[in-house]
Write a structure and sequence with these properties.
about 150 residues; alpha+beta; 8-stranded mixed β-sheet; 4 helices; globular
């Protein structure tokens, strides 16, 4: 059966993923952060392999369009690696992934490090700046925190 052209939400741990899908997901993250934003950084940081790490993505016609990573940091959760392919931007896919990641956090405190210019976008999901701006890979970031129960409904 041919792959659908309508975006489908997927979630999986790395060990459950088809290797081609995992490759495409990692390629998207590298394309956005390393190539487009010109930030060489250690994309393969080992956190995707943690037993509780969950990858969320939209795919259509076999292509990964957007992705988010949800990690366990003790009793808290951490969202990161939010990326959307250039061709899929403006369709609300990243927003849908954020809502789903927050929902999956199950009412726990959720932290993320937002690129400073995107802090208002993350505020839409109930996140608030929780510390001073800092540079990460040459890009200004701000730490943000939210509670899943407060954020999911937005």
């Amino acid at each position: 059966m041919p792959a659908s052209s309508e975006p489908a939400l997927r979630t999986a741990r790395v060990r459950e993923m088809d290797p081609v899908t995992l490759y495409r997901l990692l390629q998207l993250r590298v394309d956005v952060f390393v190539v487009e934003q010109e930030c060489p950084y250690p994309e393969l940081d080992g956190r995707d392999l943690e037993p509780d790490a969950l990858l969320l993505w939209f795919e259509a016609a076999g292509e990964v369009l957007a992705t988010v990573r949800l990690l366990h940091d003790g009793d808290e959760r951490r969202i990161g690696r939010v990326a959307t392919s250039r061709a899929a931007r403006g369709r609300g896919l990243a927003a849908d992934l954020m809502r789903e990641a927050v929902r999956l956090a199950g009412g726990r405190t959720v932290r993320l490090d937002a690129q400073a210019h995107l802090q208002y976008w993350y505020a839409r999901f109930g996140f608030a700046v929780s510390g001073a701006e800092f540079l990460e890979d040459g890009i200004p970031h701000v730490p943000m925190v939210g509670r899943a129960a407060d954020s999911a409904a937005r």
